[in-house]
Structures are given as structure tokens and as C-alpha cells.
Write a structure and sequence with these properties.
Elements: E1 16-22, H1 25-31, E2 38-41, E3 47-49, E4 53-60, E5 65-69, E6 73-79, H2 84-93, E7 118-119, E8 122-123, E9 128-135, E10 141-145, E11 166-176, H3 186-189, H4 196-210, E12 218-222, E13 228-230, H5 231-241, E14 247-248, E15 253-255, H6 258-264, E16 271-272, E17 275-277, E18 284-287, H7 293-311, E19 320-322, E20 327-328
Parallel strand pairs: 1-4, 2-4, 3-19
Antiparallel strand pairs: 5-6, 6-11, 7-8, 9-10, 9-11, 12-18, 13-15, 14-15, 16-17, 17-18, 19-20
The chain binds uridine-diphosphate-2(N-acetylglucosaminyl) butyric acid (EPU).
Uridine-diphosphate-2(N-acetylglucosaminyl) butyric acid (EPU) binds near residues 221 and 268.
Length: about 325
């Protein structure tokens, strides 16, 4: 059975029945099978194989970066199998503003629109013009405009269960010449007239300080999403716990850092059966020495239950947990 252990950055010991890479739509459709479960994998930085997968894993290896310049900016068409950070590095080396805040996010270009990766004041959906898709069981191909992608916080149309046969083949980015550097995030605020390279370097330094390097310590980035709660609930929490960090989402709702909730529920640096809440960023669960997905599921459930009991806030996973036959919910 092919190994998946080093195909996903959490690196739990795991296998699948069959593993194929595809470099084009034709090779994807040729490899697709209907007689067993199928899971599409990019860089494996947002999927955790908590069990042996009893099916076919198809790895997106569609490569290529096509660049078009016009008066407004730079348009890039990029294969879904390109590495995300390599793409950001390439654009920054060219002196193009637009993707630098998303430096060092592990994963592939094809996965970026699915969960609408975001960091340091920018979500990738803001830079995407359209996404090319192929439908696995029909072979139909089409492009979705930015609006049709329905980008939200760690969310897009690609996450809807009814679209689980949609595979991202290429992503089209637009980097406008007049892109304004995004320096809202505290650590970027000190930069004066920063170039794309300055922001890129600062983001890399912040990420290296706070987040574990998946090459050294297995992890899948933020394990949970930052929950959105009502203002009333937020005010109650502040009344009980003093200052609670929060970011206004709209007139009625506040986004609270899951890191704060997990930290204040006492989990920061804690481990269960080889799975730990990372000491510098408790929202990231790390694989210290886990041998089974059960440990991940048990610890994640304990965190969810304790945070709910203490703060009345329901945490939702950001990562995708893959079991024997496909995605599992906690
Ligand atoms: N905090 C604590 N204790 C800690 C660490 C943080 O209470 O030990 C609180 C602090 O109040 C801090 C707040 O959490 O101000 C937010 O922490 P941070 O700035 O590190 O960001 P985050 O909200 O935890 C999100 C993304 C990250 C992204 C950063 C930077 C989600 C789920 N995560 O984390 O994305 O890099 O902002 O923009 O939205 C990822 O998705 O894998 C990821 C790493």
C-alpha cells in the first residue's frame, strides 16, 4: 500500500490503496476511478490522514506559470500543482506587489482558493480573477469568476459537499500595479513605505517565530477557525475575563482568536498521546510523536468540549480530517 505519511505535513503514519499524480486534465480523468473513494491532494498541509484511506489519492501536479502584462497590472495563470510559497517568492523577486502577505504558507496553488488562505491582512480570494475547474465524473471544464467562487473567511464554493467532484486545475491571479501594501497587522505596521520584499521578509520572520516548521515538527497550521460570536456574547466574555481580544466582523458580530480561547482553557503547550497544542501558538496542533489519528481526534474533541463549557463558544476545525473512506467530522 502506498504511504501517505510524508504526503501530508501532519505526518501521521498512514497509507492508501492507490496513489497517482496527475499533470494535466487528461491524466486526471484517466486516473479517476468510480469503484473506490477518491481524495484529491495538493501539498497536504490542510489534510490530516487519521486512518489508512481505503481508496485512491490523486495528487495535483499540474505545473506552469504563464505571465501576461497589461496597463493595469500583471495577470498570472498558474497550475494547481505549483508550490504556493515558490509562487509568492517568484512574484516578489519580480518586484510585483500583491501576494507578499501570504509568504511561507505551506501548500499548493490549487488548494489556495479552496480554503481561501489568508494571513496578515490579506485573503487570496482578493487576488484571484478566476479559477479553472474540471468535474471529475463528467469531465466538464469551466472557469469560475472571483464572485462565483463565493470567497469567505477560510471558505469558498469549493468546500460545498455538492461540489466535491470539482477539481481546481489552474488559478488566475491579478496583481494590479496600484496595489497598496497591506500593513494593518501589528508586526507590519512599523514598516515605512515597504516594498513587496520588505513585507515578504517580515511575514516570513513573524511566521518563523510563531509557527512550527512542518519539516521539523508535523502540523497542519491552524487546526481550528477563529470563531465568530455575537457582540452580546463578546461583551459577556469581557465582563467575566477582562479584556478579550476580538475583531469586529460587522455591526452584530465579533471574531475572537481561537488561540486565546485555547490558551485560556489551559491547553497551550499541553500534550495528549503525542499530540500537542504548540507552545508559541496554541491554535496549531503538532505531531510530537503520535502514532494514530485517534489521538488527534480525542485531543481536538477535548479542546472543543472544554472551550465550549468554559466560554460557550463552538470551535470548528479548519483542517480536513480524512478517515478510511473520506472526510470525517469531529
Ligand atoms: N493568542 C493568545 N495566546 C497565544 C497566541 C495568541 O491568546 O499563545 C491570541 C492573541 O490575542 C493574539 C491572537 O490570539 O493577538 C491572534 O494570534 P495570531 O496573530 O497569531 O493569529 P491567529 O488569529 O491565531 C490567524 C490565522 C493564521 C494566520 C494569522 C496571521 C486562522 C485560523 N489563523 O491566526 O493562519 O497566519 O492569523 O494573519 O485564521 C492557518 O490558517 O493555518 C494560519 C496559520
Amino acid at each position: 500500500m502506498p504511504e501517505l505519511t510524508h504526503r501530508h505535513t501532519f505526518a501521521l503514519p498512514s497509507h492508501c490503496k492507490q496513489l497517482e499524480s496527475f499533470t494535466s486534465v487528461a491524466s486526471l480523468l484517466a486516473a479517476y476511478r468510480t469503484d473506490m473513494p477518491v481524495y484529491i491532494l495538493g501539498g497536504g498541509s490542510n489534510s490530516i490522514f487519521i486512518d489508512d484511506f481505503e481508496g485512491l489519492v490523486l495528487v495535483n501536479d499540474i505545473k506552469g506559470i504563464d505571465v501576461q502584462h497589461d496597463e493595469e497590472g500583471v495577470r498570472l495563470t498558474v497550475g494547481g500543482g505549483e508550490n504556493w510559497h515558490d509562487l509568492v517568492t517568484y512574484t516578489v523577486e519580480q518586484g510585483w506587489h500583491g501576494l507578499e502577505n501570504l509568504a511561507l504558507i505551506p501548500g499548493s496553488v490549487g488548494a489556495a482558493p479552496i480554503q481561501n488562505i489568508g494571513a496578515y491582512g490579506l485573503e487570496v480570494g482578493e487576488r484571484i480573477e478566476k479559477v479553472d475547474v474540471v468535474v471529475l465524473d463528467t469531465g466538464e471544464q469551466f472557469s469560475l469568476s472571483q464572485q462565483a467562487c463565493e470567497f469567505g473567511y477560510r471558505d469558498s464554493v469549493f468546500k460545498r459537499p455538492e461540489h466535491n467532484k470539482w477539481i481546481v486545475t489552474h488559478v488566475h491571479f491579478f496583481l494590479p500595479h496600484n496595489a497598496v501594501p497591506i500593513t494593518r497587522y501589528a508586526e507590519l505596521d512599523a514598516l515605512i513605505n515597504p516594498t513587496a520584499k520588505d513585507i515578504f521578509n517580515t511575514v516570513i520572520a513573524v511566521r518563523q517565530r510563531k509557527l512550527p516548521d512542518p519539516k521539523l515538527l508535523g502540523n497542519a497550521g491552524s487546526f481550528f477557525k477563529n470563531p465568530v460570536i455575537s457582540k452580546q456574547h463578546y461583551t459577556e466574555l469581557c465582563g467575566r475575563y477582562g479584556t478579550v481580544p476580538g475583531f469586529e466582523v460587522d455591526a452584530a458580530n465579533v471574531k475572537v482568536p481561537a488561540a486565546w480561547l485555547i490558551d485560556n482553557a489551559g491547553f497551550k503547550g499541553q500534550c495528549r498521546d503525542g499530540v500537542c497544542s504548540y507552545q508559541h501558538q496554541p491554535l496549531v496542533l503538532v505531531n510530537q510523536s503520535a502514532t494514530s489519528g485517534l489521538a488527534v481526534v480525542a485531543f481536538a474533541r477535548e479542546i472543543i468540549d472544554t472551550v465550549y463549557t468554559r466560554f460557550g463558544v463552538q470551535l470548528e476545525p479548519e483542517v480536513r480530517l480524512v478517515g478510511k473512506t473520506g472526510l470525517v467530522t469531529l
